[in-house]
Design goal:
- The complex is a heterodimer of chains A (477) and B (399).
- Chain A has helices spanning 3-16, 24-40, 45-64, 70-86, 113-126, 143-154, 165-179, 196-209, 225-237, 254-263, 284-291, 297-307, 310-322, 327-339, 343-349, 355-359, 368-375, 379-383, 390-400, 404-427, 433-443; strands at residues 101-107, 131-136, 158-159, 183-188, 213-219, 241-245, 267-271, 279-281.
- By secondary structure, chain A is an alpha/beta fold.
- Chain A folds into three domains: 3-86, SRP54, nucleotide-binding domain (Four Helix Bundle (Hemerythrin (Met), subunit A), Up-down Bundle), CATH 1.20.120; 101-293, Rossmann fold (3-Layer(aba) Sandwich), CATH 3.40.50.300; 299-465, Signal recognition particle, SRP54 subunit, M-domain (434 Repressor (Amino-terminal Domain), Orthogonal Bundle), CATH 1.10.260.30.
- The two termini of chain A are 28 Å apart.
- By secondary structure, chain B is an alpha/beta fold.
- In chain B, 45% of the residues lie in helices and 11% in strands.
- Chain B has helices at 3-27, 56-63, 101-106, 110-122, 127-139, 144-159, 166-180, 211-224, 241-252, 265-278, 296-309, 330-342, 360-368, 389-397, and strands at residues 198-204, 229-232, 255-257, 283-286, 314-324, 346-350, 372-376, 384-386.
- An eight-stranded mixed beta sheet of chain B has the order 3-2-4-1-5-6-7-8, with helices on both faces.
- Chain B is globular, with a radius of gyration of 25 Å.
- The chains are: A alpha/beta (477), B alpha/beta (399).
């Protein structure tokens, strides 16, 4: 997600990084590139114009200030600007004092309303609520059937009846009261913003059920039209928030920036996969750093904390620095890592990953050969790979069904990594005791100089381009 | 120092080491295992329950042609009960006069037309003129690359004094844009196939673009032309997708062949082809699940669907990529990836009756050479119509 935009900025920033002073020509060039990047990311033309103007204002000041590396200042400026557009804070859901809390879903055809209605219901359920779904899309053939199927999958009841969408929604509200449900989610038919009749109909639904939240579902792939659509729906319904769907695609998602800027309502949720749990509250503060190539570190850590045992992780990290990290430890960490989701996704969020790795399209199955080799080693070999000699190699290769060259490569890589980590550990200040060691880890910066969480500093993201800076992975030819 | 940074470092090292080995193996090209190949596809399994068709099916079908039909894909499953469905759209069997792209788009072309009006009113050609034109094109999702190319060409001609009025400039732009779309073969192809064979049209695209609806409309139109049509419900992933297609089958009088939800889509398409060939139908329209083009496992699945659809007695004569007119620059990536995976022969630009302009088709046609064949202009069967570039460009200009 947003990867392409990040790459683009990477390219610009690499060129101006390290320059002592930005000339006017530099500023123009940077702005032009930023403009193109934003346009190619489908950010609305008018929004782009405003953003670029604001960045230029800031960038002019940079020339006279010599306190900071100018390129870092530009990055910071752009970062700030994008963060501003993406919105201040996460939308916080407050529940109606007299249940149910009513949610109305609106959007164009095919934006993902039905799927996201179910995802939202599942999310409310995970918050300890008891939602009822209402299928008021009586237009698209089998839309209600789709909702019912999804409802069964997440174990949430679905109410619908043939006839008129307005009365279906109204009856749904009564049904929620009758069943004592505390959240009501009303799925509606997709409609064009310019279809007066259909817009009047959803307005009527809204008047009848007086929603606490009206969400506009927007496809992350939407182009310039996102603004028109958002404005029209906002004018009719008073949108409270946006649900950004299909964010797991490779669209750069500029629509998110535009919509936020134009209707001033937050992106409340984002849908990041086809699974019904691939859906969460949107974190505007994380997007900008992601756009700037600093990786989505906060999301990564959140996922990691769920997947890793904390004590175990600390122990493994300490071993890592002392050069005592074994292949067993690697296998174990790899298993935790896989719990966090597909590896390709993790790579994208991780700052400072070598580009070749990012581009390699590695699926989880690709690691199986690696695991097979390690599993074919004896306990002793896994602890001390250096004892692996010719005959052991042959046995391991035969046992794992891989070639001897592959076994060699793995062992060599591993020892490189160990050496590197040991050197880093030794460099750490205050080598005595566990605490000191951890401080040393912090000193490494996040992996090859990427920004650490919370710092979001202008230096972040530099690692992506630096190639072989990462321990244990040689730069490509 | 907190646990977060420790985690990060641990993650990084584990990732780089583990994946690094994979990449190094690939670099040296020795990724061939001595005994087996690690299967790629299921990197990100979908949520649906495991396929109830035997998983060996795809393997066997890859080797031989003999595939026994699915029990539940028996013909004429038109009896799908759909109690809570009240079809509000009445079927419109008799095709009315072809809707005009210009008319449908004109309802929304005002913003752009306004810009062009401003350009005209200025009379001469100033730097504002260029800014206005650029903005109008970008707002129509034409994209930076094509916009620059168009305007650079015009600038040169203005400089050479070939063009000196705003009207002349607009006319030149309009004809340049039409020229970019000229000369493509936009016909839908059917081959005269030998006895027992059948033409297959596949419909592919990302989620929510309107594949199923488009198939329904195509089915009705082909049926109106006197062709017998079989619809193969190859979207086994989205809940109730087959039911949705079934409704369209009823409306158009086509036969529906469906499989299990979560089943193998290739098998459903294959069954559809078998069924059509057996009863001597003219055309199979194959639906597929929406998929984002960056999901390699799903694109692999699509490759297989394409392969299986073309196996005897199927003859794939069209692979139509449905693109939503609201799509921005990602449309180009969609076209590129789907073309690579499934050999796309044409684009269906859907939902052009909204406020979106679908300008991405310029890039798709010029960069990838894939012609737009059909446009969707509304919800009724007659609202799917052939693409007329001149009319489309004129509509963009509001004239």
């Amino acid at each position: 997600m947003f990867d392409n935009l990040s790459n683009r900025f990477d390219g610009i920033f690499k060129r101006i990084r390290g320059k002592g002073r930005l000339t006017e020509a530099d500023v123009d060039e940077v702005l032009k590139e930023i403009r193109t990047a934003l346009l190619e990311a489908d950010v609305n033309v008018s929004v782009v114009r405003n953003v670029v103007a604001r960045i230029r204002e800031g960038a002019v000041g940079i020339e006279s200030s010599k306190a900071l590396d100018p390129s870092q200042q530009v990055i910071k400026l752009v970062n700030q600007e994008l963060t501003n557009i993406l919105g201040g804070e996460t939308l916080k859901i407050t529940y109606a004092s007299r249940p149910p809390t009513v949610v109305l879903m609106a959007g164009l055809q095919g934006s993902g309303k039905t799927t996201n209605s179910a995802k939202l219901a599942r999310w409310f359920k995970s918050q300890g609520r008891h939602p009822l779904l209402v299928g008021a899309d009586l237009q698209r053939p089998a839309a209600v059937e789709q909702l019912r199927t999804l409802g069964r999958q997440i174990d949430v009841p679905v109410f619908s009846e043939p006839g008129d969408p307005v009365s279906t929604a109204t009856r749904g509200l009564a049904e929620a009261r009758r069943l004592g449900k505390d959240v009501l989610i009303v799925d509606t038919a997709g409609r064009l913003a310019i279809d007066d009749e259909m817009m009047a109909q959803i307005r009527q639904i809204s008047d009848q059920i007086t929603p606490n939240y009206t969400f506009l579902v927007i496809d992350a792939m939407t182009g310039q039209d996102a603004v028109t659509v958002a404005e029209a729906f906002h004018a009719t319904l008073q949108i409270d928030g946006v649900i950004l769907s299909k964010l797991d695609g490779d669209a750069r998602g500029g629509a998110a920036l535009s919509v936020k800027e134009v209707i001033g309502r937050p992106i409340a949720f984002a849908s990041t996969g086809e699974k019904l749990d691939a859906f969460d509250q949107f974190h505007p503060d994380r997007m900008a750093s992601r756009i700037l190539g600093m990786g989505d570190v906060l999301t990564l850590i959140e996922q990691a904390e769920k997947a890793f045992e904390k004590d175990q992780a600390e122990e493994a990290a300490a071993k890592l620095l002392e050069g005592e990290f074994t292949l067993d430890d690697f296998l174990e960490q790899m298993q935790s890592l896989k719990k966090m989701g597909p590896l390709g996704g993790l790579l994208g969020m991780m700052p400072g990953m070598p580009k070749e790795l990012k581009d390699a399209k590695i699926g989880d199955d690709d690691l199986k050969p690696v695991e097979a080799i390690i599993r074919s080693m004896t306990r002793e070999e896994r602890r001390k790979p250096e004892i692996i000699n010719g005959s052991r190699r042959q046995r391991i290769a035969a046992g794992s069904g891989r070639s001897i060259a592959e076994v060699n490569r793995l062992v060599k890589q591993f020892s490189e990594m160990q050496k590197m980590m040991k050197r880093m550990g030794a460099m750490a200040p205050g080598k005595k005791g566990k605490k000191g060691k951890m401080a040393g880890l912090a000193g490494l910066g996040a992996l090859g100089g990427g920004g650490l969480p919370g710092l979001g500093g202008p230096g972040g993201g530099s690692a992506g381009g630096s190639g072989g800076g990462f321990p244990g992975f040689p730069p490509s030819r | 120092m907190n646990a977060q940074n420790i985690l990060l470092i641990l993650l990084g090292v584990t990732l780089v080491f583990g994946l690094g080995v994979v990449v190094l193996n690939r670099r040296s090209g020795s990724n061939e295992p001595t005994s087996r190949t690690a299967p790629r596809p299921s990197a990100e399994p979908r949520t649906t329950p495991p396929p109830s068709v035997p998983p060996t099916r795809e393997e066997t079908s890859a080797a031989t042609v003999t595939i026994e039909p699915e029990p539940e894909s028996e013909p004429g499953s038109k009896s799908e009960p759909e109690p809570e469905l009240e079809p509000e759209i009445e079927p419109e069997p008799e095709p009315v006069a072809r809707p005009s792209i210009r008319e449908r788009m004109a309802r929304t072309a005002t913003a752009m037309a306004g810009v062009f009006g401003g350009v005209r009113a200025r009379g001469g050609i100033t730097s504002d003129t260029w800014d206005d034109l650029e903005e109008a094109l970008l707002k129509a999702d034409v994209g930076v690359g094509v916009t620059d190319a168009l305007l650079d060409g015009l600038r040169a001609r203005v400089k050479a004094k070939e063009i000196d009025t705003a009207d002349g400039l607009l006319a030149a732009l309009q004809s340049d844009m039409s020229a970019r779309l000229a000369g493509a073969d936009r016909a839908l192809h059917m081959e005269a196939v030998p006895e027992g064979h059948v033409n297959v049209w596949l419909f592919v695209g990302v989620n929510g673009v309107g594949k199923t609806t488009t198939i329904g409309k195509v089915a009705a139109q082909q049926a109106a032309l006197g062709r017998s049509v079989v619809l193969a419900a190859g979207d086994t992933f989205r809940a109730a997708a087959a039911e949705q297609l079934g409704t369209w089958a009823e409306r158009s009088g086509a036969e529906l062949v469906r499989g299990n939800e979560g089943g193998d889509p290739s098998a459903v398409i294959f069954d559809g082809v078998q069924r059509a060939a057996a009863k001597g139908s003219d055309l199979v329209l194959g639906d597929t699940a929406g998929r984002l083009q960056n999901k390699s496992n799903l694109m692999d699945e699509l490759r297989k669907v394409r392969r299986v659809a073309g196996r005897e007695p199927g003859v794939v004569t069209e692979v139509l990529l449905v693109i939503d007119a609201t799509t921005g620059q990602n449309g180009l990536a969609q076209a590129r990836e789907f073309a690579e995976a499934a050999g796309v022969t044409g684009v269906v630009l859907s939902k052009l009756d909204g406020s979106a302009k679908g300008g991405i088709v310029f890039a798709i046609e010029t960069e990838l050479g894939i012609p737009v064949k059909l446009v969707g202009l509304g919800e009724t069967i007659a609202d799917l119509t052939e693409f007329e570039p001149g009319e489309f460009v004129a509509a963009l200009f509001g004239n």
